[in-house]
Every structure is written in C-alpha cells, then in structure tokens.
Amino acid sequence: MVASNLETPTKAPVIHIKGIRKTYVLSEENIVHALRDVELAVHEGAYVAIMGPSGSGKSTMLNILGCLDRPSDGEYWLGGDDVSKMPDDRLSEVRGKRIGFIFQSYNLIAQLSVLENIQVPLIYQGEDPRDHHDHCVGLAKLVGLGDRLDHRPAQLSGGQQQRVAIARSLVNDPFMILADEPTGNLDSKTGTEVLDMLDKLNGEGKTIVLVTHDDATASRAQRVIHMLDGRIDREVINRP
Fold first, then answer.
1. What is the pTM of this model?
2. Which of 42, 89, 101, 132 could cross-link 15 (Cys pair, CB 3.0–4.6 Å)?
C-alpha cells in the first residue's frame, strides 16, 4: 500500500522533466509561453512543494506532472517511461495507475459512498472493485474513516472528505501523490490534520508533489520549487 524504502540519491529519479516547454498559441499576435525549458528531477520518497504567483506556470506544471496535458517540447519521464510522447489511451492508463490525485475541492462523487469513492480509480482501470474490497476498507481505516464506509460526501465534514480523497489517491499504489492546494478549503485545524497525514505517508516512503500558495504548507516539504514567468526561479531545501 505504502512503499517502505526511502529513496537514496544514487537511484534514478521517479520523475524527470527535461527541457519542458509549453506554448499556447491564442492568435498570431498572442502567444503564451507558459513553461520555458523547465528541468526537474524528483526521487522516490521525496516531498516537493511547488509555489509561484498567478501566471508563473505553476498550474501548467501541475497539469503536465499529472499527465493531464502534454508539453509542447521536451521530455517527461515518469517511472522510466517518457510519457510526453505516449498515445492518449496509454497516457490515460499511466495516469490512472501511477499518479494519485488530491484536489482542493475533493472531487468526490456525491451519489457514492465513502467506500465506493475510494474504489473509483479501480473502476476506471477496468478492475472489479469486489476483488479489492479488503484493500479499500483498509485504506478507509488508514485515514480514520473505517466507521464511515456507507456515508455519502454530504454526510462528511470537509476534512473527512479530503481524507476520502487521500485514501482514493492511494488505491492503485501510485508512484506519486499529486496534491493541488489540498488544504485550501479547510480550516486551519483540519488543514493541519490533513498535512500531518501527508507527512506520515511521506515518512513511510510515498513520493509527494504538492502545489500550494501557502508558505506554512510548503515548509512541510523537503524541497520548495519557486516558479516565475514559466521558469524555476529558485529552489529552497528545507531538509535533506
């Protein structure tokens, strides 16, 4: 469920972006260079935060890291494969199996129970959730919702909904958890609880890339990547 071995610098990075560019041609006169020759390597077990003002390229970077968009140029190696050149069907499969998503707005399905929401990525990958029942129940217990399996999202607090999202992100044992402002809709106490949970998962070896505007949230990460004008402007190392 969660990897037990922390990464050592001698291993190849699980995420490696090489010379990534992303250009949006809105018209002949209006060309947006959202990313400009970005280089980034993230090793297994790392915890990286990405920050930047509006228009810095942070959201574009998020979409490319999550295989939700393709770069205009460059390479994106995820787990040893260059996903930037994959056909759409293969890319969708990689996205579902190798990346776990946690969103600010939770993105739960209102009609489904806690257990069923956790199972959703399995269904997308053509798996029979009945074959993974015990695994999904175990994930619900891991995030403290073992007694809420039949509840719908409307019956849960914001923090509980985000816990469901965390469990859902782990169901396929992904290479990376990609968290987009995971505490943005939560009060400070509940947000701290969610960040504590991410800290615990990272401490057990799970790779986390977190996009945030909040300095306190970013301080949890080992590395903080600051973006500006489509480039990595600087990097801060909080701890080895």
1. 0.88
2. 42
